[in-house]
Amino acid sequence: MTILATSSQAASTRQTPYTDSAFGAAVALSCRECGERVDLGPEYVCRSCFGPLEIAYDWSERPVTREQIEQGPNSIWRYAPLLPVSASVAERPNLNPGGTRLVKADNLARELGLRSLYVKDDSGNPTHSFKDRVVAIALEAARTFGFTTLSCSSTGNLAGAVAAAAARAGLESCVFIPAGLEEGKIIMAAVYGGRLVALDGTYDDVSRFCSELIGDPAGEGWGFVNVNLRPFYAEGSKTLSYEIAEQLGWRLPEQLVIPLASGSQLTKIDKGLRELVKLGLVEDTPYRLFGAQATGCSPISAAFKAGHDVVQPVRPDTIAKSLAIGNPADGPYVLDAVRRTGGAIEDVTDPEIVAAIRLLARTEGIFTETAGGVTLGALRKLVATGKLDPAAETVVINSGDGLKTLDAVADVGITATIKPTLAAFKTAGL
């Protein structure tokens, strides 16, 4: 069975120059717009229509079973047969991300009026964000293509994930960020010893610069995980859907609330869920996808609410800097997926983000970064406005650790300072 391919598309596929085992069941890059298929390689734009490319698979000769998956390591590599990687990927030096906990959030559910709520807590990854998943797949492609330097444009989390993965793999790294990111993310990206370059401008300015560098001799031998390796990189987000389904006992959740930056995480979670159904690993049950954006950078939310199919770029102005992508590449595909599944997209203000961070910490003991505050804040608003069914089982994604964005909740602190005596404690009314 070939995912996202037709017989006419298959006819245009050429023989890949790389060994069959290097990419597992992946067989080609397929254009999401016109369907043309090309060899697996470091490409990301269709040569015919300039649409985005993504990985296409053929599992007809490689059947995948639950038992096979369950015997794998407690990382994303248990799903290696579903990814564009070799079967021996777990044996190579990498950060082994994934295997993060799915928390039954009963306290939060009661507070929000939900029957059943889970938090997929991806802050437990090696560099404390979901970006370790996508970078791990891109790293394997970079090795296969012979790249010697790993690079990216980043709003913070990705920079740290790339620098750490490169250090572990013995590669050079040079990552680019917009000036003015949170200090915690800057330090985390720099500590691994690679080059960290800040550019004056927004993330979209940084992304354009990286695209130019790819075509210049100065960028020769560089693998940009979210540009020329993007089709491979994006597949890492599918592992969130695989883990959630397996952790729920091999079934699909009824509702998922997902943060939106480029939009790739939501579209690839959707792809992963559909793959599980196509392969017979889960029952084909309905699910609804919900997107979450910060009001200060909400082009996809604005397009959804206006009923548009085109996403109008904006200039970001929000504390949720990890989601501050004003021209989201996957925006139109997010709109398609959300509308197809009967979901919705919501956005929340900076004060609502902070309130949501504190709510999650108070109710479930999970300290999320601002992106998680956006997602939980959107969940709260979706429930209040009746767009999300409170009786349906819901999973919300926490994509990163709150220690990276301490400034957002800097107003919390010591309850009281007292002398070290019982009398002082009682006098203070504690």
Helices and strands in order, then pairings?
Blueprint: H1 7-11, E1 26-31, E2 37-38, E3 53-57, H2 66-70, E4 102-104, H3 106-112, E5 117-121, H4 131-145, E6 149-153, H5 157-169, E7 172-178, H6 183-190, E8 195-199, H7 203-214, E9 222-224, H8 230-235, H9 238-247, E10 255-259, H10 264-278, E11 288-294, H11 299-306, H12 331-341, E12 344-348, H13 350-364, H14 370-384, E13 394-398, H15 422-427
Parallel strand pairs: 5-13, 6-7, 6-9, 7-8, 10-11, 10-13, 11-12
Antiparallel strand pairs: 1-2, 1-3, 4-5
Helix pairs in contact: 3-13, 4-5, 5-6, 9-10, 10-12, 11-12, 13-14
Largest sheet: 6 strands, mixed
**Radius of gyration computed on alpha carbons:** 21 Å
Question: For the record, what CATH class of the largest domain applies?
Answer: Alpha Beta
Q: Give the overall pLDDT as a whole number.
A: 93
